[in-house]
Backbone:
């Protein structure tokens, strides 16, 4: 079996099967051995681990995972890649490929079924156009996930790891920080892929919390407050939340809630921390309930 991880071998496999990367699936095949090894190191993969991989492509990263992990479960939406994976992964008895859309599968069932309910590590080179839905599905699934180490668009990685007050800080930063500690591990140049993407990439590691670092009376309400607070970034949080059909709050109610927290009503969403959003959502929900 020939080991993948370089441009020549990737081109050879694609030519053999008369294939090219499919834009509709956001396919960019990783060919840089240094980056591949860096992903394995960042994820801390050992032979005791069961890894859930999303989008194995032609199996390049999968081979690296199989060399280090005890078990690898790869979910691939593109059925035309199955014959390729049969060849490139033929020497690895510890890999299972599931031909399904990861956004439609039961993540918790996969984790429970393949790792007896023990926490798994997620590793993936994610399609950029659906990065956020996949990340949120993983966290919201309730599955036992120890960590998520993924290749994403650099801009998205910066947003995931952003701190309050920074230009990249927003609703994604807050959503991720509710579930995990985020750390950008390395930047990845376009030349590390076939075909080369038009934007830079980065590897980000998300270490899942045992429990969220804040407590909100209604988690869904808090995330709706967060989403609306960043819906129009140039507006103050008071103007974003006031008279919003999805919230039913007046401007006075929002301003009163901010005042109670010692926050100026001219503040914008990017200045509030996760704990402040949790507190604000509790205050505003309480006021809303009193009115209704």
Residues:
């Amino acid at each position: 079996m020939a080991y993948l991880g370089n441009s020549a071998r990737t081109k050879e496999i694609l030519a053999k099967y008369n294939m090219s990367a499919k834009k509709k699936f956001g396919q960019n095949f990783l060919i840089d051995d240094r980056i591949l090894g860096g992903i394995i190191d960042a994820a801390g993969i050992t032979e005791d681990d069961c890894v859930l991989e999303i989008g194995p492509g032609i199996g390049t990263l999968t081979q690296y995972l199989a060399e280090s992990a005890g078990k690898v479960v790869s979910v691939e939406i593109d059925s035309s890649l199955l014959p390729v994976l049969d060849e490139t992964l033929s020497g690895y008895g510890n890999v299972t490929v599931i031909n399904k859309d990861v956004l439609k599968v039961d993540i918790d069932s996969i984790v429970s079924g393949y790792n007896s309910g023990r926490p798994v590590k997620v590793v993936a080179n994610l399609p950029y156009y659906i990065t956020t839905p996949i990340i949120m599905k993983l966290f919201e699934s309730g599955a036992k996930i120890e960590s998520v180490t993924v290749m994403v668009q650099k801009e998205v990685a910066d947003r995931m790891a952003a701190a309050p007050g920074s230009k990249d800080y927003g609703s994604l930063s807050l959503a991720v920080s509710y579930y995990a500690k985020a750390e950008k591990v390395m930047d990845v140049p376009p030349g590390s892929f076939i075909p080369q993407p038009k934007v830079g990439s980065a590897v980000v590691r998300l270490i899942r919390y045992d429990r969220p670092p804040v407590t909100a009376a209604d988690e869904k309400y808090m995330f709706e407050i967060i989403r609306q607070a960043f819906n129009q970034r140039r507006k103050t949080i008071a103007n974003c939340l006031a008279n919003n059909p999805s919230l039913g709050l007046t401007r006075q109610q929002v301003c009163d809630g901010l005042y109670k927290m010692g926050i100026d009503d001219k503040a914008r969403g990017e200045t509030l921390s996760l704990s402040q959003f949790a507190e604000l959502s509790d205050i505003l929900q309480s006021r809303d309930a009193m009115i209704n």
About this structure: Residues 7-208 form a domain with the Rossmann fold fold (CATH 3.40.50.150). The radius of gyration is 21 Å. The first strand starts at residue 29 and ends at 30.
